[in-house]
UniProtKB/TrEMBL annotation:
Belongs to the ABC transporter superfamily. Its EC number is 3.6.1.15, 3.6.1.3. Pfam families: ABC_tran. This is ATP-binding component of an ABC superfamily zinc transporter. Keywords: ATP-binding, Hydrolase, Nucleotide-binding, Transport. It is an enzyme of class 3 (hydrolase). Residues 13-240 form the ABC transporter domain. GO terms for molecular function: ATP binding; ATP hydrolysis activity. It comes from the Bacteria.
Amino acid sequence: MAGYSLGDSTAMISLNQLVLGYQGRAVTPPLTGHIVKGSMTAIIGANGTGKSTLLKTILKLQSPVSGQLSFTEGRPRIAWLPQLAEMERQFPTTVYDVVCMGAWPARGLFSSLNRQIRLRVADAIERVGLTTLSKQPIEALSGGQFQRMLFARLLVQNAPLVLLDEPFTGVDSQTSDFLMTLICQMHQAGQTVMAVLHDNELVSRHFPQVLLLTQDHFHWGDTAEVLPHYCKSSINLALSA
């Protein structure tokens, strides 16, 4: 199936017969389409269909099996939220220090934080409701607090492209709603957002575009048109089990 149509919009990322996989073994069909600048796309599908692999391929953490992935106007700054299971929570650092890391891509690892950056960090921590915990070690945080901290780091980065890998895993519904509000604010500010998600109701309420990945095919387009295909594929998968 053809990818999402550009219309009058500008592509940020173009996929041309892109096949994703591990160690040369394909897990997706050839993907062709565009991620539009300023768009907000949910990536959905069963486990093992290449959702996280797509994000890591965009980040150049993995290589595709074949095909091409290109940035239309050059590689932008990218803010990435990995899965919680991939995060090291025992590292001896504080909430404030982790949020400050959001300034590294623009300032450099060894640059000192000027007053403007420190104010931005303090504002981001306040926006996620962690001001009173800013000096706490990260190992003392709950799952929801830890995710709020990572979102504060995203706010400091303020990158044109935001990649979120299962951002609501391990948090309660109240925190999920709060984080979803932050994601919508990023989108409204003009950032391009791609998120791996499993909550169809949340996708239908908030995400204008969806990329559905299965082992044999993909559907990419407006949410109202794509989600029914996911429901159908889920039913077929259950019947064949």
